[in-house]
Amino acid sequence: MDDAMSFGRLAEEIAREAGDMLLAKRPARPEVVVTKSSPTDIVTALDQASEDLIRARIRAVRPDDAILGEEGGSTGGGRVRWIVDPIDGTVNFLYGVPEWAVSIAVEVDGEVVAGVVNVVPRGEVFTAVKDEGAWLAGERLRCNAGVPLDRALIATGFGYESRRRQVQAEVLAHVLPRVRDIRRGGSAASDLCSVAAGRVDGYYERGPQYWDYAAGGLIAAEAGARVGGLGGKPSNPGLTLCAAPGLFEELHDLLAPLDPERDG
Ligand code: IPD
């Protein structure tokens, strides 16, 4: 089992299982167990349970693969690496806002070849395999093309540290008057799938982590979007941008001069 399709099938099976577990076990108000970079950066007991389940399922079938997970960090080595966000949109999960996801991507030799984002409360499982397309419920996904910036609905997200939020608020003040409107869904993985499905036209965020966008980025790219950073790949703390070609460049040109740590 070493081809991208098989990795995609296994990732989907595991993301569905983790999603089912989370739905079954989610209490009315999940308990916060640790705060991370700031009091707004939270982890619930179920973030950890979800990552434990995902890691155990991967290890049972592929004991030699590396895993990078939001809660458990980096383990193992080798050509194949699994990138895991056990709950993307933890604040939504905590409050019962129905926009959180289990996100799993599979990298071979440093390139993402398969990705799945299970937006659990909506029962939507987005999948993509490199060069084979992106899918939702048997339908091939295509992002919106030909939308100019001033007619674009743009999703964005915010980090947890106040300094980063200050910068993000300043950037938002420049972006909001120039676009149709802004959405802040609360899950970067789901935002990228929304670009893929044409529910928004683009997405940008300064500083999402790799596990936030690894799977969603492939899904958006396979739906025809460009995914990148300022002058290249997404990076942390740099900007991650995603939109159809044309709108991508317009967004890039709007955001590049505003970024205090231009990374390209
Ligand atoms: C967060 C969400 C949010 C984004 C933040 C992420 P988490 O992930 O994706 O939409 O704006 O940058 O950290 O902490 O809920 O896994």
Automatic annotation (TrEMBL):
Oxidoreductase listed as a keyword: no
Reactions the enzyme catalyzes: a myo-inositol phosphate + H2O = myo-inositol + phosphate
CDD domains: IMPase
Keywords on record: Hydrolase, Magnesium, Metal-binding
Obligatory cofactor(s): Mg(2+)
Coiled-coil annotated spans: none
Entry's EC annotation: 3.1.3.25
Top enzyme category: hydrolase
GO terms for MF: inositol monophosphate phosphatase activity
Lineage: superkingdom: Bacteria
InterPro entries: IMPase, Inositol_monoP_metal-BS, Inositol_monophosphatase-like, Inositol_monophosphatase_CS
Family: Belongs to the inositol monophosphatase superfamily.
PANTHER family for the chain: INOSITOL MONOPHOSPHATASE, INOSITOL-1-MONOPHOSPHATASE-RELATED
Protein name as catalogued: Inositol-1-monophosphatase
